[in-house]
């Protein structure tokens, strides 16, 4: 990871470059390399950030899942502009995506929900009031066990209507690689009007 980052070594498309770096982050042994810090803007204008897990990506962008009634989802529905950062500190790299989000369709949401472990599926049902105050941990545990008794151990659990995903369509992607003496390498991909990408080096 110590080699300087050069323009000649970058892929022409940001998602291709991300795929290369993400594979290297996974191979490095990082804990949860798919963890990313997601920022949104509240209706009041106050920014808010939290860590979520990326659950897939392709040439169009990134996917993540949440409760659609949560604070972050309500903020994203009101203002779909967002920014995420992958903070791969241990390998001295980070990747920033800025763009807009759109909700995923029912088919994609159902497919991913069905792939989740049973406990995670039950947790989605028990956390219907995500981001809202609860009395105590006992209330959460009670809800979890109540839903656990609804479906038999071998029975499929349906996806709650309030649970689903978003796709982030980036218009800007920045790759940051740490260097000695704060001489970091930073390259930014910017989406241009014809749908192509312009790449520029940024000062550290």
CATH H-tier superfamily: Electron Transport, Fmn-binding Protein, Chain A
What's the number of structural domains?
1
Number of helices, where a helix is a run of at least 4 consecutive DSSP H or I residues: 5
Fraction of residues in H or I helices: 25-40%
- Rg calc: 19 Å
The outline comes out as elongated
Question: Beta fraction of the residues?
Answer: 35-45%
Using DSSP, what is the number of strands?
8
Structural class: alpha+beta
> Would you list the SSEs in sequence order as H and E?
HEEEHEEHHHEEE
Q: CATH topology, what is it called?
A: Pnp Oxidase, Chain A
Q: Which architecture would the CATH scheme give at its second level?
A: Roll
Could you tell me the mean pLDDT?
94
Major beta sheet, strand line-up: 1-2-3-6-5-4
Q: Termini, distance in Å?
A: 17 Å
**Most strands sheet:** 6 strands, antiparallel, barrel
Low-confidence stretches: none
Briefly, what CATH class?
Mainly Beta
3D architecture notes:
The chain is of the alpha+beta class. The chain has a single domain, classed as Roll (Pnp Oxidase, Chain A), CATH 2.30.110.10. Helices cover 26% and strands 36% of the residues. It has five helices and eight strands. The protein has a six-stranded antiparallel barrel. A hairpin with a 5-residue loop joins strand 1 (35-41) and strand 2 (47-58). Helix 4 packs across helix 5. 24% of the residues are buried. The mean pLDDT is 94.
